# Entry
Amino acid sequence: MVLRRFASKPRFALRPDLPLPKYLEDNYWWAYLHPQGLHIFEREWLVNLILWGNFSSLRDVALQEFQSGPQKVLQVACVYGNFTQKLAQQLPEAQIDVVDVAPIQLENLAKKVANYSNVSLHHRSSADLKFPTATYDSVILFFLLHEMPQDVRLATISEALRVVKPGGKVVFVDYHKPVALSPFRYLMVPILSTLEPFALDLWRHKLEDWLPPKTHSSKETFFGGLYQKVVCTK
# Structure
């Protein structure tokens, strides 16, 4: 096991036994795995453009679920833009763990949060977190589920719910089927079909349908229904 250190903090241990998922290599190499893709997409204005000008508002909608004070928070997967930095600023007393299966994404995030001592990075799979059960007060998944085939999505949701403490919450922010009168209901179909092969699953099914029976959840939609926030309490 090789220890990777960037600036002073955070650091993460690279797990050589953890391969990149095939779906990630096949479908998202250009966005998340290629250095040039990282160079292109790690731009605040571009992240905002991809979300039709809604990145900051959706980020803040997610962050409003987190209250200040000592706690353990898990962010499942790195995010382009300043999502993690804002989370660390909002929760200076929290221990924030971020997991990702792609070392290049962890390396990139390590540079962005090097000055935040409350952030730690972990080379893990979202479908098999390998953290003890009931470890975290809150878990956040920000635009992750739409990038996964259904089996990985179900495993990821199960793991997120497993590692959160009783009384804790899991927050999902992701795509949603727009209302009938929204132009994005028609504009987004060719975009998602071409670039995001699994994303339209979140149009065909309610996110809540993938939750275990009797899971308590609430949902809000935004921007004509194109985006959703689902909060599960355990």
User: Anything to note?
Assistant: The two ends are 34 Å apart (CA to CA). The first helix runs from residue 22 to 33. The mean pLDDT is 94.
